[in-house]
Specification:
With 265 residues, the protein is of the alpha/beta class. The protein has one domain: Rossmann fold (3-Layer(aba) Sandwich), CATH 3.40.50. Helix content is 36%, strand content 22%. Strands 3-2-1-4-5-7-6-9-8 form a 9-stranded mixed sheet, with helices on both faces. Helix 1 packs antiparallel against helix 2, helix 2 crosses helix 8 and helix 6 crosses helix 7. It starts with 11 loop residues before the first helix and ends in a 17-residue tail after the last strand. It binds S-adenosylmethionine (SAM).
Length: 265
């Protein structure tokens, strides 16, 4: 058996290079939905965590073929885990997802699939294994009100102090209930702070905006990191359910700055 003291960390430059390679090259080989602005924002926050030595697992609810899951998973250090939650119950989907994980992850980058809906994941108490240990969570599963409320409850259980949550398809005309679910959650519970939103920059068929949230303790640090990374795409601050969020716009393209080292709170 391997104990955590036997695990040799992967040097940060190597992790950053793997992440860059996936974000700039390999990602085009995986079918799915991830707009370039949101890709740049998630990539920047993962880089920030690597540079600041923030450890933890990464989780995605709703993986499909793994396009965005593999972005998160390519930030893993040895000993960290990438957790996928998705029933993947349509013909060939699970096979495709697992094949992509084998192609685009290294052996030491551990991934685990929970092939069940996320409400079952929570009801069965599976969050307890990850309580406070998750540094990045992407909510991209059931696109209906109850599913998003459930998935934000998962976020509350698993998110670490310096972790971040991304909610997909905010302000998307096909899924208005996602935005309402997030707003209702934020009105009822102040445990998550919304700090940024990335605007969609292509037709609705390619997805909507993404909202970024964090624990109050980590939100300021992550907000600053994103403003620095995407300074050219920052549009303005906007009120969202009584919170101030940074809006990033990409209709003139994405300009991502090189990583600046940051010490975390
Ligand atoms: C829009 S796709 C996800 C896209 C993916 N993140 C990507 O990078 O392309 C939505 C996924 O959510 C899954 N899903 C639907 N309802 C779910 C639920 N209740 N819990 C978990 N996953 C769910 C579907 O099986 C599907 O694979």
């Amino acid at each position: 058996m391997t104990s955590s003291s036997d695990i040799t960390p992967t040097p940060a430059p190597e992790r950053l290079a793997r992440l860059r390679r996936y974000a700039q090259e390999d990602i085009s080989g995986v079918t799915g939905w991830l707009q370039v602005g949101s890709l740049a924002a998630i990539w920047s926050l993962l880089e920030t965590q690597i540079a600041a030595g923030i450890a933890g697992d990464v989780v995605e609810i709703g993986v499909y073929h793994g396009k965005s899951f593999l972005l998160f998973a390519n930030s893993l250090d040895a000993g960290e885990r990438a957790i996928a939650i998705d029933p993947l119950d349509q013909a060939g989907r699970r096979q495709k997802f697992e094949d992509n994980c084998r192609v685009f992850l290294r052996e030491e980058q551990a991934f685990a699939l929970h092939a069940i809906p996320s409400d079952q994941f929570r009801e069965e108490g599976r969050c307890s294994e990850f309580a406070g240990k998750v540094r990045a969570l992407h909510i991209d599963g059931g696109h209906v009100y109850d599913a998003v409320r459930n998935d934000l409850k998962i976020a509350l259980e698993v998110l670490s102090e310096t972790g971040f949550v991304v909610v997909d398809d905010m302000a998307h005309p096909w899924y208005p209930d996602i935005t309402v679910a997030v707003a209702d959650h934020l009105r009822e519970d102040a445990a998550l702070t919304a700090f940024a939103m990335t605007a969609a920059n292509t037709p609705v068929t390619n997805g909507g905006s993404k909202l970024f949230l964090a624990r109050p303790k980590g939100a300021g640090f992550l907000r600053k990191a994103l403003r620095s990374a995407l300074a050219h795409n920052f549009k303005y601050e906007r009120d969202f359910v009584g919170q101030t969020i940074d809006i990033f716009d990409f209709h003139q393209g994405v300009q991502k700055n090189p990583l600046k080292s940051q010490s975390h709170p």
